[in-house]
Write a structure and sequence with these properties.
The structure holds two protein chains of two kinds. By secondary structure, chain A is of the alpha/beta class. Helix content of chain A is 38%, strand content 14%. Chain A has eleven helices and nine strands. In chain A, the strands form two sheets. A five-stranded parallel beta sheet of chain A has the order 7-6-5-8-9. Chain A has a four-stranded parallel beta sheet with strand order 2-1-3-4, sandwiched between helices. In chain A, helix 2 (59-70) links the parallel strand 1 (48-53) and strand 2 (74-79). The radius of gyration of chain A is 19 Å and the shape is globular. By secondary structure, chain B is α/β, with parallel strands linked by helices. Chain B has a five-stranded parallel beta sheet with strand order 3-2-4-5-6. Chain B starts with a helix and ends with a strand. In chain B, 37% of the residues are buried. The interface between A and B is medium-sized, with 25 and 22 residues.
């Protein structure tokens, strides 16, 4: 096994445990590369990658772009706010126009769930989903589990609680799939209104008391409250949310064990997590960001090796 | 493992070097290195992954135990991400560990690999090592030099044995620690 079972990374749902392990092993090598004095390898010098961001992003876009450049790929960027999408062009037309400029791979973020899957059926390029609506965000989940593996040695057998806005979170869904494929147990914790109705069908248990959830877990992944996706009020006030589901130092120190604290970013300091927790030694938030580049390099490298070389 | 290797493939093979001959060659190579590099204070050895590492470790041990040279710096260099056949081979290229915990800047670098064939690996290694600084000089040591098969103008500075092998033939280097015996075979398919 040294090849991914898929030609696109559309979601964790579509890949196997062996794929995840292969990505992790490859990322180990790239992590070593990005800590060298010269952090660049020439592997992908004949590959062109388009980053299509139909939705705002800072760190994911930077992380992908850095990963692509560290692999020596040529990179073109596109964001919908400054493009013809506002003039009424369809997704397939936009992408086919870009592909006619000989692009081999597309990294796409899109507000609509399933946009990546749709695109992969209609265009001839390798697609990486960088977040599609509230559906999946596979590279984030991979780097989260990779960071747990790095911190705790293994993901199998670990207990992970995902706290916060599960309903609007693509990070939550991809994390659930990844963690379960790697043999971890997953619990979600948050206001009832922000927990999807059928989440238990995914073998995920629900806990509405944060203290109980934290006492159970080895790792707590604190999600951001996604105000921009909320069409109605899901909880009375931000202050009330913080009191019930915010992680502070006092609560963390009162637990009878040391847990690992994660956050996919961007952090609303003082809402889902206080500053002293975010900056504490139990937090691996900045490690997650560093691992993000290594994981994305691994995914791009492995997918690019499946693009057939053009002999002409 | 060599026994597996034999049972799987029905082929004829000829011994090029036996354990004693390998030992003589290793000692000669070690002495040649000392002639050039003296106490190795400005020299680093780099084994090319995956198979050059065994030879590099042997030479290091030999230099330290038989010739009492201390503080030999040895690193492993993986060239996977620098190869020129990415997307051209059937199987994806699998990486190995790179372990270079010293600076190669202004050092005399000796690349160590078991077999020099087309020279493409060494070409990749020349690019790869630049990520760790600008060496003063780079030399190449190989146990087996396959003559007449080079694709690039690359020649070894130190060689154990020169071999004339045609393209269909394979040179297989076995190490006690990995394959159960010290031997070099010429394998005909």
């Amino acid at each position: 096994m040294s090849e991914l079972s898929v030609n696109h990374l559309l979601g964790i749902k579509y890949i196997t445990e062996a794929d995840i392990q292969l990505i992790f092993e490859t990322a180990d090598h790239f992590k070593e590369v990005i800590n060298r004095p010269i952090k660049k390898v020439p592997s992908l010098r004949d590959i062109t990658i388009a980053n299509l961001f139909f939705e705002n992003s800072t760190r994911t876009k930077l992380s992908f772009e850095l990963a692509e450049k560290r692999l020596s790929a040529d990179v073109i960027n596109f964001s919908s706010t400054s493009s013809s999408v506002t003039k009424g062009e369809t997704l397939i037309d936009t992408v086919n126009n870009i592909l006619s400029m000989k692009v081999d791979m597309v990294v796409m973020r899109h507000p609509n769930p399933g946009a990546g899957v749709f695109l992969s059926k209609h265009v001839d390029a390798s697609i990486i989903n960088a977040g599609d609506g509230a559906h999946e965000h596979p590279t984030q989940a991979l780097l989260d589990s990779y960071s747990i593996r790095e911190k705790l040695g293994d993901v199998a057998g670990k207990k992970v609680v995902i706290v916060g806005d599960i309903l609007h979170s693509r990070v939550a869904l991809s994390n659930i799939f990844t963690l379960q494929k790697l043999g971890a147990t997953v619990k979600v914790c948050g206001p009832k209104t922000l927990i999807p109705k059928y989440i238990e069908k995914l073998n995920v248990s629900i806990e509405t008391n944060l203290r109980k959830a934290l006492e159970w877990c080895d790792v707590a992944n604190m999600l951001r409250v996604q105000n921009e996706r909320m069409d109605i009020s899901y909880f009375p006030t931000t202050r009330e949310y913080t009191q019930q589901f915010g992680l502070n130092k006092q609560l963390l120190d009162s637990l009878n064990k040391e847990i690992v604290v994660m956050h996919p970013g961007p952090i609303n300091r003082g809402v889902e997590i206080t500053s002293d927790v975010a900056d504490s030694k139990q937090s691996i938030i900045l490690e997650q960001v560093q691992n993000g580049v290594a994981i994305r390099m691994a995914v791009i490298y492995l997918l690019a090796s499946k693009i057939k070389h053009n002999e002409d | 493992m060599l026994s597996e290797y034999n049972s799987e493939l029905p082929m004829s093979q000829k011994v090029l070097l036996n354990a004693t001959e390998i030992n003589i060659a290793l000692n000669r190579l070690a002495c040649q290195l000392i002639e050039k590099h003296d106490d190795f204070s400005k020299t680093v050895l780099i084994g090319i992954q995956p198979r050059g590492v065994f030879l590099a470790e042997r030479l290091k041990t030999l230099l330290e135990t038989e010739y009492k040279i201390k503080n030999i710096k040895l690193g492993y260099l993986d060239i996977t991400f620098y190869r020129d056949d990415f997307r051209r081979s059937e199987k994806p290229l699998e990486a190995n560990k790179t372990k270079i915990d010293f600076i190669v800047e202004d050092k005399n670098v000796v690349f160590i690999d078991d077999v020099l064939f087309t020279g493409r690996s060494i070409r990749s290694a020349l690019t790869a090592v630049q990520s760790f600084g600008r060496p003063l000089e780079i030399e190449l040591l190989t146990l087996i030099d396959r003559r007449f098969s080079r694709h690039l103008p690359i020649q070894p500075d130190y060689r154990g044995r020169q071999v004339d092998a045609i393209n269909g033939e394979k040179v297989k280097v076995c190490w006690k620690e990995n394959d159960g015996e010290d031997a070099v075979y010429l394998v005909k398919n």
